[in-house]
Design goal:
five-stranded antiparallel sheet, alpha/beta, elongated, 12 helices, 349 residues
Length: 349
Amino acid sequence: MPRKKTLLMILPPSLIAEEFRRLLSAEYEILRTEDEEDGLQILNRMREKISAVLLDLDLARDNGRPFFQAVNHNALYAAIPVIGIVPRQPTVDDLACLDMGAADLITPPCEGKLLLKRLSNVIRAKDSATFHEIERMLQVLPSNIYLKDEEGKYIFATHYWHHLDTRGDPNWTIRGKTDPEIRKDKENAIKAYESDKKILATGKGTKYIIEVNADGQQEFLELIKEPVRDDEGKITGIVGLINNVTEQQLLKLELEKRSKTDELTGLYNRHGYLELMPKLCSAENYPIGYISADCNDLKKINDTCGHLVGDEYIRMAVLLLRMSTPTGGAIFRMGGDEFAVVLPGTDEA
């Protein structure tokens, strides 16, 4: 069973207060007080739980409306609607509370279903306003934060990145569209869509990095996705975060390359040899030729002519190996003046 939303009722004892409590208690958890100062303390302690406040306007007027003043000057309460309760036809003075921040005015008698509907609409409207305010704030962040519905269609995204196909339309919107419909990099778009379907089916989030090559730019994007659930636990969509990790990923790739590559010759080193050999020695590459070679008298050249000449000797030897190795062969510098050449698909003859 979903958790009830909470209402704070600031109403003096009366038949009206009892009627509101009776009509609303089946759908809401009711917190009730007769004092505005006490109501502010409750609101301050429980602001993350309270969905709306019902305030007696006669009580507010007699006290100088401190509740409205406090709430309207505190951004922490911006998402909590205050609804004025008037025991008669509203006066001009009552209507002035709308200018002071009241979200609605309700006068009894009230039909239960209509009261619940109006209250729900006020809470939702206040939530929506806050949602758009948050959306605008999120746009100043470099990350792209987006929301999709239960069909994988975008509800909103804080940024429109360059690899979207907007067709140059200034009024283009991402709302209601799926990744395969709007992205230029179709392979990644399909991957994203399949990932979304899996999240919606399993309820498990995911995190991965993709490479994007669009408009002549190479980028690496980190995607973090989690399912969104309603109060009953049903999956209603996906919330996602896209971070541009190009700089970090290029550095990582460069470090990986350096760890497997000999700096002097550009050949794979022993680490590269150990990583590539399982692939080179796979069944489809048989028979395999293997050549082991070294540079004669390298130590003597280093001792007599210097290491710069010795390094040039090694580079020239590598040049000869490259010229002699057929396409598909791989050359490795195993250390010092030792080299290995692997030739997949070598004829047995």
